[in-house]
Amino acid sequence: MQEDLARLPVRLASNLDGARNNDLWARAVEKLSLEDKTTINFSFDKLSILSDLKAETEAAQLKCEERRLGFRRRNGEKVILRDVLGKVAKWISLFKEVGDVVVSYDPGHAALPWALVRFILQASIGDLEKYDFVVENLEIVSRSICRCRIVEQLYLDRHTSAAKDELELTLVKLYGAILLYLSKAKSFLERKKSLRIISSAFQNKQEFQALLDSITSDLQEVDEYAHLIAREDDSSRYSELNRILLECEAPLKRLSNQLQGIQDNLTDTKRRTILDWMSDTTKLPYLKHHKENKRQILKGTGEWLLNDEMYKKWKDDSASSLLWLHGIPGSGKSKLTSLVIEDAFKLSAQGLIPRPAIFYCSQNTAEPLRADPTSILASIARQLASLNPSSALLPPVVELYEETEAQGSASGTLDIDDSKELILALIDVYPVTTIIIDALDECCANERGVILDFLKTVIEESSSLVRIFISSREDGDIVFHLDRFPNMRISSGKNQVDIEAFVASETARLVRFGYLLRNSTRQMELAEEIASRVASQASGMFRWASLQLQNLTEMKTDADICNRLGRNPPSLEELYLEIYNRIASSQQFVSSRIAQNAFSLLLGMKTELKPDCFLTLVQFEDEVPTATQLLDICCNLVVFDETAKVFHFAHLSVREFLESLPVFSRARTHLDISLCALRQVADWNRAGLEIWSWNFRELGRYINKYLRFHLEEAGGQNRLIALRQGLWSLLDQGDLSTLDGPEGNLSIRWRVPKPPTNTDISYRCLFNAGALNFTEIVKYLLDGCSDQGAAPDKDIMSPELRFSADGSGLRYLFRVCTPDVHFELVKHAIRCGATAVLSELLDRPGPDTFGPNFALEAASSAFVEETTCMEVLMDRFGLSCISTETILRAVSVGFGNITPSTSEQSRFVQGLVQRGLHFHVDPDFLSSVEFLLKQNSGLPPSNGRWFTETFLLLVDTDEGCELSVEFVKMMIRQASPSDQQLLRMLSRCELQHLVQTDFVFIARNCKFWEPIDLMLTSGVISPPNFDFFLDILAWRNGEYLLQDLLNREDGHDIGREVFTQNFLESLAASSADREAIITLLSSGLEITNEVLFSACTEVQPGMGENDKFWWLLYEVYSKKDPKVLDRAQDLLEKAAKNGQWEGFRYLLTEDESLVVTEDIVLLAANREQSQWGGYAAAEKRIETLQLLKKHTDSKACLQILGDAIAKPCEIPGYKIVTQEGYTFVVKEQTWTTKAL
After folding, report:
1. I need a labelling partner for 1214 at 20 to 30 A (CA). Which of 94, 565, 811, 1190 fits?
2. Beta strands 646-649 and 465-472, pairing class
3. Residues 592/582, Cβ–Cβ less than 8 Å
4. Best CA proximity match to 523, nearest among 564, 557, 488, 473
5. Quick one: pLDDT band at residue 500, thresholds 50, 70, 90?
């Protein structure tokens, strides 16, 4: 009866004590229909409703976080329910704050909507995912209630005007819409479940959306009237209410205290090591890149983006989303992205969100990592690895590093798959993750799809809130991937105000410094006209505006400027061409060459150089420009990065324009860079600097590392040009071993060897050219320079070669190149892997008798498996040049130089077989093989399998070859062959001579049954029995062998007589690991008490425990087998006696019926620390003793255990400490209270 009365419609105004807020809500109730009124329960505790609702909301939020709950909107966006409820909790808190600020505040019926919100939350909390649309809309309703409460207090209570009356009416209208929505939602949730399921179809959701749209529309109208009143009235005295209003506009705090309290217990050095393993900030200084972009932003520009509704929604939405900013070249995308990054950094500084992960891509040959997807994702992973650069690393990072370190591969870098997995794991740790990537179009075009696919996966699959911002041009592949996401195109309509501000500022700067209108008679008037015309013609391109202003600085008269402004605006490419032609056609020849050098260096250099090194390289005719001169010469196409202190192109479009010009083809660009470097080499030669000393200079290190690469890229004909312009200075060096290999290869095997000591010094240019594989130079020198018409400049020749000014002595020298020199030159080319030079030399007349010598030299070369020198020799001399010694030498060299990219066998031997080699495997060869293997013992198994496969290639060519069993055993010991390789060797043996001991030895090294089956066919071996299998399964391959046997059709027949319960007990007592036992259990055997007692073997001092005993216990207790559990007490005592502490602790933890006797305590306490093993075992000892203390009340036992725990740690470098009742084994040098 009371409930029915409570549902009757009532008049509220008489009970509100004249409070305006309650008046407005009462008036809103009166406007509801009778049906909607009867849905509302007006009987609730008005004073406690907000506190109760907030507590329930936070509980629901925690539930959503634990279960990672979310749902997808119709557009595919994934909403994170935890975040939605976090916002609801925020609005409730702010509403309560209004009550605390306003002294006369009476909750009254203003609490009515909150009561409905609470009911809806309670009704939907059991199935949040099904009623997701209702829960998400509750956030909008809660925000509206809170915001309007503040608006009332600020603008209604003390103001009288027409606007105030309109605001009041609009608020009543809005409150009515809120109550109507809540009433409908309540009615929907109160229906029977079957009806609710039917009504939750799309049309019902559409009805709720229409109600929500009405609330949103009314709220916008309320804001319009509120802003109108705010302009007329000073509300500054209501500072607290204004503060709360501003907080309504602020983003939700999404940074938990729990996350901030994470500790990693790492030293600063270790933390830095892990971070640098992920991504080295000295190579990818992402903060410096941001600082430079931020520095170039004109104050006040870009605000349109931060105020855009789409951007605001992306920034504060509860759905994971990706926002794509795109536009034409030069439209300011990077500057706008830096504003977005700054906005995110500010929110992070306020403690609202974690720091964003940022990356500025760049298509720059000097910074290749900035265009590499692997490096980009690794940098993002590094930034997400901790809350800030100096805080603790998050658990997924530490776990991955420790796992990688354990596998011995932590010396490398984070690969792209590891980066992806790590980023996904870190995103799950954060409440919200922000990733911002600028200029994605500058990432490698054929590889950036990896990043785009991954980012889409992150958005679609992550269970935490993720915001991704990408800026780029509108390249086809990027449009294909991102067009379905929210995107903003930069147009002249959006950034025109920014363009005008930039042009006005830049024009004023150029005029102020005398670059523009220096001699004008109407400077101010023309400056305004220039700013107006250029801004209006820019079509949204800052880059175009900048270039147009730069071109205007070349105009000397007002008339020329006016004429230029009056013409049709040129395109961006036309502006670039105009500037470049002016530079190239300049009468100042030196300046134009300096610009050419600068452009080439920026197009092709492999790493960035400091300003002084860069300026030294671009010099021409001993004219080294200053930084200011260089920028002036390059006419705004090159800029100086004040943050990174390097030169680079002003914009990507500059690089693209220059690359389109024939004069900057790839070969010509690298020729220019080579000539710049060679001029420096010539200067150092004249100064008497030895080549080894170049590495003490930054420029010298660059030349040593990359000059060979630039010369190779320049091409043969360009190298001939370089020969006459400085390359001779390099080739005339006595030692080029400091030069890195092709493409900057750092391997010492690629270093250039010195010319032979038995040749005249005058030939070293020829030998060095051959070593570098510069075929055209070798040919040019051997032909006496006649086809080029001139020898190198005598000023750069060594004294020994300065025979005459015209170089005639040089031509004579090479015409009389002796056969001995030719012979040494061929061998030198082979040693250097210079295949092209080798072909050229072999095509020249010479004796055919040297083939075996050359082949032996090639076999001794470190490049025997990596170059085609041997192929060239066999093409020239045939297989007749190949001897057994040559083959052994080549295999020996290849055996020691195997890399992950090496094929499964020797390419050299494979080539011999393909050419029809028939090799005779004689005893001497087999003895040499054995000697070679023993000489190289200790190499990884992969090297041994490579050697075995190469050996078998030769064996397969000899049909009559027979191998002895002893030889096969030697191969097993020294080369670790695979089962298939072992099978092939056994097929070449006379198995009738096989003895049982040999059979057992070979079987121990098999993973598969087939080789054993082959040996059994000999008929001289006893069938496998109990002892055989017990022996075999105790070896490392036993589990694989057993698994393969049981998978065979005849496997169960072979083992039926052997694999019994008795065998399982014996196997448990042996040194076999648990995998073999698991395999046997799958065949139908059971774990019995006998098996458990057998597995509980005594652990020898200093040895680790075999985990099979613990695993068997786990299996028994998980199945609750009473037949086995009845002897648990006896098993506990045996485990204590034998030192099986893992199983001992498991028994105590799982079985509450077990009793800790004094004998057990004495066994644990009196066991010497040395018998527990190393550091990990010492920790187990402490854990075991502490566990025993919890399971005994005996004072005598507790005293014994306390004394044992207090014993000093006997492990060097470790100590035992007690903190807050817990005891730990820690490293002495790193222990701190904080670490514990």
Report:
1. 1190
2. unpaired
3. no
4. 557
5. very high
